[in-house]
Amino acid sequence: MMTKKLFYFLSVLLLASCGEKEEQEQPVQMPEKVEISALKVTPASFSDLADWSKDNVNEAVEAFKLSCPKILQEQKEYMGNAKIKVLTAAYQEACKVLPLYKPEQYREFLEKNFIPYAITYNDSPNGKFTSYYEVMFRASKYKRSDYPYPIYGRPADLFEVNLQDFDKSLPKKQLVGRLVGQKLVPYYTREEIGKLGPRLRAQAILYVSSQADALIAQIQGSAIAQLEDGTYQRIGYAGNNGWPFKGIGSILLEHKELASNEVNMIRIKQWLNENSYKSEKYINENPRYVFHRLIRANGPIGAQGVALTAGRSLAVDTDYIPLGSLMWLETSYPDKGKLGKLVVAQDVGSAIKGPIRGDYFWGSGGDDVLRLAGSMNAGGRYYILVPNNAEVKVQ
């Protein structure tokens, strides 16, 4: 019955939307730059990459190996649905030849098989780069007085609708909602979820001791929980309620609870824990709610479906960058030191939007890692590595 109702809604929605609009190799011949609209990709060389020779590229190649099985399963002509079009077959060929190289030959593998392309938008290579991490906290499988706050799994009554799955002329938009009678309505807001409590059609997979821990797990998307018996349980992203995200930092700033120089995750976490009597009110001003699932993996699972690698995985906007792409990132650490590293596009984020926008995965840990990941916010640029036997275009 639920399926029939959903189908009925989709039919009405689509009808209503219609009409709206080995040996020494010869040097690689550099192709002409490709330009469509304001987004450009321009061929460069590895010598153009700042500190390329200093980076331990082996770490990134190991991360890339995790992406290869996903890339080899791709059947589309181009990787993903990104505006930067890279032939899937070319990346698949790179994945196939990679096992022929030993670790000490990984730099040779990259330089022999790829060309870096500079990405610019409106004739500028500059973009914004932040970072995220996998939070660690204590938790319980059962609700107790010292672990009162639930971490919910994905609700049974939550539906996701991708409009372009039904009509490519419709906007590229995902609707998230629940059925009320024969109508799909927006899913509950964060505040409504809190008020529903046990009536929410979702299982509490863990309980934590503070609202701050639950909120940070939602912001980061994944977490490692140390349970009462000393064992560890990793949780991963399982969906969200479809409402827009509003950062707790900007909320506390608006209410003059924190000064602008205090808006970092360490100070925010401290404030939430010290002001639990009114923190819920402010947290609820962010209507977005993230659901989690229990997972078994060596790292948090990114959007590509592979375990993320500390310091080598990057969350990107897949409207522009296809998942699985090797990227050269140039930005700054929180202490303003230079960061020049080979990374792999393996994740996404709701706030990671734009052609030159990335979220650097710092790793797993407690407040020591939060202090770094929560304060990284710098300008920078990146290059996409494209197999040298493939064309690249923008459309």
Rg from alpha-carbon coordinates: 22 Å
**Strand and helix order:** HEEHEHHEEEEEEHEHEEHHHEEEEEHEE
Shape: globular
DSSP helical segment count: 10
Largest sheet: 6 strands, mixed, barrel
Q: Compute the average pLDDT.
A: 88
| Helix percentage range | 25-40%
Overall structural class, as computed from helix and strand content, comes to alpha+beta
Number of strands: 19
Strand content: 25-35%
Read across the widest sheet, the strand sequence of neighbours is 5-17-14-16-15-18
The span between the termini is 41 Å
Instruction: Pick out the low-confidence regions.
Output: 1-36
Short description:
This protein has 395 residues and is of the alpha+beta class. It contains ten helices and 19 strands.
What key phrases describe this protein's structure?
disordered N terminus; 3-stranded antiparallel sheet; alpha+beta; 395 residues; 10 helices
Question: How would you explain this protein's 3D organization?
Answer:
With about 400 residues, the chain is α+β, with helices and mostly antiparallel strands. It has a domain at about 245-285. About 25% of the residues lie in helices and about 30% in strands. It is built from ten helices and 19 strands. The protein has helices at about 1-15, 55-75, 90-95, 105-115, 190-195, 210-220, 250-255, 265-275, 275-285, 365-375; strands at about 35, 40-45, 85, 115-120, 125-140, 150, 160, 175-180, 185, 205-210, 225, 230-240, 290-295, 315, 325-330, 340-345, 355-365, 375-385, 390-395. A six-stranded mixed barrel has the order 5-17-14-16-15-18, surrounded by four helices. β11 and β12 (about 230-240) form a beta hairpin. α6 (about 210-220) runs antiparallel to α8.
